[in-house]
Amino acid sequence: MAKFTFFDVETPNYNNDRISSVGIVVVEDGITILEANYLVNPEVRFDPFNIKLTGITPFMVSDAPTFDVLWAELKPYFDGSIIVAHNATFDLGVLTMTLAHYGIEIPHFNYICTVVLAKRFLRYRKNSLDYLCATLGVLLERHHEALSDARGCQGIFYHIVEHYGYSDDLVQTFYKPHLRGKSVVVRPQKTPVNQVKFTLASTTDSVQIRDKVFCLTGDFRFGSKTDVELFILARGGQVVNQVTRQVDYLLVGALGSPLWAYGNYGMKVKRAFECRNAGTGMDVVLEADFFSQL
Q1: pLDDT tens profile 249-266
Q2: What's the DSSP call for residue 47?
Q3: Buried b / exposed e along 97-108 (16+ C-beta atoms within 10 A)
Q4: Full-prediction pTM beyond 0.85?
């Protein structure tokens, strides 16, 4: 079997474009050749939420290497490996944005996502790392400790491979060289959604993220749609591109859209209200209300 690098990152703040910790487990020819957890000085602020979630404080990383230094050590474990992660697009997205910040060349990553595998093969009611580990009997020593999460991902992966087999079609490619964090993106000023000619209000004052399905529409003050998607993925939610009956929340960006004019508020909003009227329970949530409730 191929060389696998099981991989997890933790982040210091809501931007999710820097790394405070990396955990990796490297397996070659079925033998574990490395297990390591690295603290990283992200050179940015820490949010209280992330400190509480990960247990990592600014003091703990004050003498840790910055990621540009650490990458020289980590890169050989990514080159030629299949990267396996839980919610892999989140971890690889954070890695890509961190590399971009330091001007480091962005590799093509071949990866497998254990969330995707769980949806395809296990079809449980939840796909979160802690739920799957508990259900499958995989040891998860400390959730949101990077090495512990990488080991948990490893256990889920091998459980699925043992019961359902391995094939090359499980592998996907991640290459987003233009992916950037909030701090390096310049956006034109747009009319806030509350100044557009139609009136739109949130249909709920209570939003949950974990195990909920979101669809995004409009442009966001928080950052790009990728920023918002990564924020949701990091908290156990899912993001889809189209409004379907499986969507729990349509999240409406505060900056609206140039297409939202003369009373036209977009097909996604229209479709969301059609679903609500059909009794699906879908809610429409404005960006400001979404972040104020967290």
Answers
A1: 999 988 777 666 444 567
A2: -
A3: bbbbbeeeebbe
A4: no
